[in-house]
Amino acid sequence: MSPSPVGPYLPLAVTLLVSGLMAAALPVLAHFLGPRRASKVKSESFECGSVSEGSARQRFAVKFYVVALLFIVFDIETVFLYPWAVNFKALGWFGYAEVAAFAATLLVGLAYVWKKGALEWET
Amino acid sequence: MTLPDLTAADLQPVLPALVLAAGASVLLLSEVFLTTASRSHLALIALGSSVLAGGVALATAFEPAHAVFQGLAVQDPFSSFVTVVVCLGLAGVVLLSADFLKQRQAERGEYYALMLFAAAGMSLLAMSAELITLFINLEVLSVSTYALTAFLRRGPRPAEAAFKYFILGAFSAALFLYGSALLYGVTGTTRLADMVGPLRTAMHTQPWLATCALALVAAGFAFKVAAVPFHMWAPDVYEGAPTPVTALMSAGVKAAAFAGLVRVFLFLGRADPEVVALALSALAVLTMVGGNLLALPQRNVKRMLAYSSIAHAGYLLLGVAALFPHPGTGVLAATPLMLGSPAVNSADAYKGILFYLLAYTVSSVGAFGVLSVLERHADGDGATAWDLDRFSGLAQRRPGWAVAMAAFMLSLAGIPPTVGFMGKLLVFRAAVDSGLLGLAIIGVLASAAGAYYYLRIVVYMFMRPAPAEGVLPEKYWATELALVASAVAVVALGVLPGRVADWLSQSGMFFGTR
Amino acid sequence: MLPVPLPHTLALAAVLFCLGMVGVMVRRNALVVFMCVELMLNAANLTFLAFAQAHGDTTGHVSAFFVIAVAAAEASVGLAIVIAVFRSRGTVNLEELKTMKH
Amino acid sequence: MSAEALLFYVFALCTVVSAGAVVLARGPMTSAMSLVATFFFLAGVYALLWAHTIAVLQVLVYAGAIMVLFLFVIMLLSMTEPEPAMKLNVARVVGALSAVGLGAALIASFWKLPTQPMGWAEDSARAAAFGTLKTVGEIIYTRYLLPFESVSLLLLAAIVGAVVVAKPRI
């Protein structure tokens, strides 16, 4: 039996464990150690400066959604570039042509949303 | 790593999809870069691309079947003909859309681009021979259709219809995918051609697992083709979507989904033809009977056509069931289909399915076309926009439309001398030949019941007086062009099906049947 | 031998799939229903990966790769539709979306 | 029991619990956060199945991008009120029962699968390369080039579809 391919995850697991413990321990410690004296001023969002108005739960404008959504699509494009990058030499011009066709298609999409004004914040 | 050597021969089968995708890109770019007042060029670009893509597909339709892209896809006459049918339907739908959108001041490049994307997905779906490729192409067409359904934003209906369509589409995609994953586990491959052998073994060693996997894949497709009992989304979605988009769903999406269904089950069905044939037959009976019965009480013509589309899926399923030999008739022993050698009667079944798809495409595009010119912009999205009374006395006000609509209704009802009759004849004959006599009888009875609601429209058009204060519907040249073309096709193919049926006989050269 | 028996991994996937399916059936918030569909897709991915390890075949990984890409595309259009529904109806509760029932 | 197996059962339990929370939680926000947790635990399971690439993708795309979009929509629609208790009807019960039945049939059939000898993992080079980005990429860019290009079509359709549907004015 070969050594398990899961071994390299050990440092990651340790990091996660430590950070998880920290995240759990700190609020608990703060709860027991910290003094708590609530007052009206303290419960406001900003203790100094102008008084905050309205609910914190304001609706986002849809234009932000369109940007977030385009982020996802281009995120997927990037994800497809990683496996190409590690095989770049072996794939040569063949792979280059494949990725060029892929990227060209998405470039049409980028040109479309850009000119459409879907990326503009101030509209 | 060995690089695949791609030649022009590999690219040729995807040429129709490339043409459609290129047309869509041009539309998108012209939408944002050309800011002219007139927007009629958009429909022309879309029409041009669909005709060109259909022509390219037709030119390759007679090449012998072969695998391309290392077995992920196949090119055979079947896939080419499905692409031709899809492009034909698309061209008709584009013509309907031109007037429909102009009337609503909603002419947008995106609309046509999404239609072309959907058609590209359909064309690729028809040739996919590997489960993941098939899944992705199915999604290309689904995602485009979801967006098209919500394209018009007047009133709550389109958004709701799009949402229903989306959720059930995503659900059925998940069923299909889970079934594919299990099939991959059982057989160790996702390529349909390589699955047959291992799956046949698995049907004996792990019958439960293999059957569940097949059932999940079948359920995924049953949702897409709106087979009873997976049909509940169809009436609402068909009614809520813009009428030309509904036409695309009933013509293109249905044809492509059936192409995928035939492709998958023709391979996988060989693992256990009896079980698959039984399941398809059961689905066919439920869908034929259920679709027709549900359509009977509908006064809303758009909703009635939605149920009618379900019923037609039933007849097509009967054709698919006829691809398999049936137990208890002795055919099973005589047909060496199980061994993958030449299938005696399946060529007739392919011909039936393809001819039926063609017949249904031209008839339903025409019927939805008449519906789209009768519904007025002012109607908003009230249910009365498609009420049967709209058709009262149409023969006096617009005799041309009434005659065309009568032809489409006769064709959908399967009454000669229309293409719908020929389609039903071919499908039912193939069913009888493969031992499905009982099912064919049920099909004939169901379509006889269905004739009632189709002929009711004809009665309304020709025998009811026109409403006194009725507004004369406007004339639309593009839609009328589509109506004339499809009416001529309905009658011509019904009277002289010879040439096309001969072409379709060639589609017996289905990849994998050898 | 596998470190984890194959049936156990597959059973986990089946449980996830059924949870998702039950969620699609019983939940009424459109967004939550969509989340349940995502659970089902993940169950399919887990099945692909479990069998890929058992067969020693990378095809299962490639499938999962593509499925993730498809899920992202599906989510972007699906969530846009959820927004459109909310804009026109002011709710995403499926029970209230019944204007088309006759 | 090996450490890997132990970890698997821990992750599996967490996955099922958080997936259950997605289905049962009353508020959409709770469901969404449980779904994020589910994706993280699943990424752990994927890593244990030696699917390194997919484990990373799961975090990067699913937990990192798709779920952000879900949260965005919840915030966009100010969806905070919990959904009222669900009413059961026949169709729902039948659907849910058929889901449970399907799951039971599948799980029962999994135990009848032949035990995999895993002979291929004896080849340590192959086991080390299994599921890496390089191995996965080799297959995507050679054998799967048709679906790869289809994905670009899918993404373009998704961009156009999302803009058309979500933008207030087009």
Keywords:
heterotetramer; C: 102 residues; mainly alpha; Helix Hairpins; D: 170 residues; Four Helix Bundle (Hemerythrin (Met), subunit A); 2 domains; 75% helix; 0% strand
Give the overall pLDDT of chain A as a whole number.
Answer: 79
Oligomer: heterotetramer
| The named CATH superfamily of the domain at 60-123 in chain A | NADH:ubiquinone/plastoquinone oxidoreductase, chain 3
N to C succession of SSEs of chain D: HHHHHHH
Low-confidence stretches of chain A: none
The appropriate CATH architecture of the largest domain in chain D is: Up-down Bundle
The average pLDDT value of chain D, as a whole number, equals 87
Radius of gyration of chain A: 25 Å
Identify the overall geometry of chain D: globular
Question: How would you characterize the largest beta sheet of chain A?
Answer: none
Succession of helices and strands of chain A: HHH
CATH architecture identity of the domain at 60-123 in chain A:
Up-down Bundle
The level 1 CATH classification of the domain at 60-123 in chain A is Mainly Alpha
State the distance separating the first and last CA atoms of chain D: 60 Å
How would you explain this protein's 3D organization?
The complex is a heterotetramer of chains A (about 120), B (about 525), C (about 100) and D (about 170). Chain A has helices at about 10-35, 60-85, 90-115. Chain A has about 120 residues and is mostly helical. Chain A has a domain at about 60-125: NADH:ubiquinone/plastoquinone oxidoreductase, chain 3 (Methane Monooxygenase Hydroxylase, Chain G, domain 1, Up-down Bundle), CATH 1.20.58.1610. Helices cover about 65% and strands about 0% of the residues of chain A. Helices cover about 70% and strands about 0% of the residues of chain B. Chain B contains 21 helices and two strands. Chain B has helices at about 10, 15-35, 40-60, 75-105, 110-125, 130-150, 155-185, 190-205, 205-225, 235-240, 245-270, 275-295, 300-320, 330-335, 345-375, 395, 400-415, 420-435, 435-465, 475-495, 500-505; strands at about 65-70, 75. Mean pLDDT of chain B is about 85; it is low at about 330-345. Chain C is mainly alpha-helical and about 100 residues long. Chain C has a single domain (about 5-90), classed as Helix Hairpins. Chain C contains three helices and no strands. Chain C has helices at about 5-25, 30-55, 60-90. In chain C, α1 packs antiparallel against α2. The radius of gyration of chain C is 17 Å and the shape is elongated. The relative contact order of chain C is 0.12. Chain D is about 75% helix and about 0% strand. Chain D has seven helices and no strands. The mean pLDDT of chain D is about 85. Chains C and D meet through α1, α2 and α3 of C and α1, α2, α3, α4 and α6 of D.
